[in-house]
Specification:
Elements (H helix, E strand, L loop, with lengths): L1 H6 L1 H33 L6 H47 L2 H4 L4 H43 L1 H48 L1 H6 L3 H52 L5 H39 L3 H7 L15 E11 L2 E12 L3 E5 L6 H8 L7 E6 L2 E2 L5 H5 L2 E5 L9 H6 L6 H10 L3 H5 L18 H14 L4 E5 L7 H13 L3 E5 L13 E6 L2 E6 H10 L1
Parallel strand pairs: 3-8, 3-9, 6-7, 7-8
Antiparallel strand pairs: 1-2, 1-4, 4-5, 9-10
Helix pairs in contact: 2-3, 2-5, 2-9, 3-5, 5-6, 5-9, 6-8, 6-9, 8-9, 14-16, 16-17
Length: 554
């Protein structure tokens, strides 16, 4: 959290200044109220016009002060939330497949939506009010030290007591906030599963059962929120009780000093300063606990989890090599089992840089398994997979995933601009984006859009054809400047004509392409360099033209 604020230190200074304006505003109100009391104390000699003008000027100042403060704060708030969203999304995108698959996708969705909303709602309000209350406490103490130094000493002792009580609540506040976040994840996952299978549930008349299950999840979520809010209120109310006791002490102190000639104006100022020292501190400590709870949420959604890194694979610490492919990936005597079933048996073949490979085989033969092994998704195999002679099991996964891309039959597009759907919110030079657009034959689509690359797509690209959506997913890989492209049934959801066009795009790319496809496009499939056919656990490598010549002949 500290580095987040430090990176935006210019805007953060503005935010602090905006908070200071609120503090000045409170002191203006104190002085205004005290001066009015002083005028009233004059009785019949009071100047009512003076009271009216003081009230009007104070009101105008209050409005102007609020507008200026709001304008100074809003830029900082916008930039911080945008940065948190970027960091949260970047954390997910940097995960290896093994790390990502440890949790449901709905958990990540909850992190990106629920947790960030929680952070936004609690962090800025809590931080602003904490700064205001802390600033007012300090300035009130300084002023009281000059006016009534003995009373200032008593208030410091009272403040120390309030601090001890608030510190007692701190750990539980953070824990309860984390529990709310966890329950949000569970609820989001359950609801998404219900919606995904709603048709099946209705056809089998199971919708009532799942409705009760969803309502039960909602009750648990609301219960966690209720407990958190009750705890926060109990904390606040307990400290408020102590605050009122302090206020009674202040009144008693002032009554004793009236006999010594204290004026009503001075008494009003001293009382308000003393009350602010106690009540501002009362507000400040619970707010600081909320800021710390918000920081935990920030750490959770943006920082790498040690548990994830440690539990995914104990051998990760031994992975020290960078991934490069200047020549080839060699699969050497690789065998792989699912339980007792052998999927691959002593496979041997080579993937040459820049060549195009098509994986074929009957359903269940192991096509997806093979592409998962080549893409470093699985590592519990026998034998070796070597990238330019370096064992896969020694390569750092992030360096591998930085240089590869994946294309699936089901394309997901964000409800955002074409540009952001291609770049995936990363800073990519315009020349690389344009290269990707031209390579995927998207120029006509983009030129037809009112805002070009900045045209906003509808939900999951509903305003595009299947071929256009697939081309955008391919453009992501090119813009990323990937060296290897893994394609899993990239054309199976398209009609024959579109499938042929997309297949041509794969074959025209300079990258190494490893693709799975059950389709045969006459005159195009033959343009692959090699076919890797899986039969009874063995991988047979053939020249594509020869392989399809034999198939067609048969």
């Amino acid at each position: 959290m500290k580095e987040l604020l430090w990176n935006k230190r210019g805007k953060f200074v503005q935010y602090l200044f905006a908070s200071f304006l609120f503090i000045i505003d409170h002191f203006v109100q104190i002085i205004t109220f005290s001066v009015i009391l002083g005028v009233i104390e004059q009785g019949a000699d009071a100047d009512l016009n003076k009271i009216i003008w003081i009230a009007i000027l104070a009101g105008v100042y209050n409005v102007v002060n609020f507008i200026i403060s709001r304008m100074l704060r809003i830029g900082f708030m916008r930039d911080i939330i945008l940065e948190v969203r970027k960091q949260a999304f970047d954390k997910i995108m940097r995960m290896s497949f093994k790390q990502f698959s440890r949790k449901s996708k709905d958990v990540y969705l909850s992190n990106l939506v629920n947790d960030i909303n929680t952070f936004e709602e609690s962090f800025f309000v809590s931080l602003l009010n904490f700064l205001i209350n802390t600033g007012m406490f300090i300035l009130s103490f300084i002023a009281l030290l000059f006016l009534e130094p003995v009373l200032a000493g008593y208030m410091v002792i009272a403040s120390a007591i309030l601090y001890v009580i608030s510190h007692f609540f701190s750990k539980n506040t953070v824990t309860l906030q984390e529990e709310v976040s966890l329950q949000n994840e569970i609820f989001t996952t359950n609801i998404n599963n219900t919606f995904q299978g709603l048709e099946i549930l209705k056809l089998n008349r199971m919708d009532d059962k799942f409705l009760h299950k969803s309502l039960d999840g909602l009750r648990k979520l609301e219960l966690r929120k209720y407990i958190f809010n009750i705890f926060a209120e109990c904390q606040k109310n307990l400290i408020n009780v102590i605050g009122y006791v302090i206020s009674c002490f202040l009144m008693l102190y002032l009554c004793l000093n009236f006999d010594k000639g204290m004026t009503l104006t001075n008494a009003a100022i001293v009382f308000q300063l003393g009350a602010m020292m106690s009540f501002n501190l009362i507000e400040a400590f619970p707010l600081w606990n909320k800021v710390k709870a918000s920081s935990k949420i920030y750490e959770k959604i943006t920082k790498d989890d040690e548990e994830d890194n440690d539990s995914v694979d104990d051998s990760d610490n031994e992975k020290t090599e960078e991934f490069t492919i200047n020549q080839q990936i060699e699969v050497r005597d690789v065998s792989f089992n699912y339980g007792d079933k052998e999927i691959l048996h002593h496979a041997n073949f080579v993937i040459e840089k820049g060549k195009k490979y098509l994986i074929k085989g009957v359903s269940g033969a192991g096509k997806s398994t093979l592409i998962n092994l080549l893409s470093m998704t699985y590592d519990n195999y026998d034998g070796q997979i070597l990238a330019d002679g370096v064992d896969y099991k020694k390569i750092k996964e992030r360096t591998f995933h930085d240089k590869v891309s994946f294309i699936y039959q089901n394309v997901f597009l964000f409800e955002d601009t074409i540009r952001n759907n291609i770049t995936l919110y990363k800073e990519i030079p315009d020349n690389l984006i344009q290269k990707a657009v031209e390579a995927c034959d998207l120029s006509e689509l983009i030129s037809s859009q009112e805002h070009g690359l900045d045209q906003v797509l509808k939900e999951n690209g509903k305003n595009l054809s299947g071929g256009q959506r697939q081309r955008i997913s391919i453009a992501r890989a090119i813009a990323k400047d990937s060296e290897i492209l893994f394609v899993d049934e990239g054309t199976s959801s398209l009609n024959e004509e579109l499938g042929r066009e997309i297949e041509k795009v794969f074959l025209s790319l300079p990258q190494t392409v490893v693709a799975i496809s059950h389709r045969y496009y006459e005159g195009i499939s033959e343009q692959y360099d090699y076919v890797l056919e899986i039969k009874n656990g063995e991988v047979l490598q053939s020249v594509a033209a020869d392989y399809f010549g034999e198939v067609v002949t048969c």
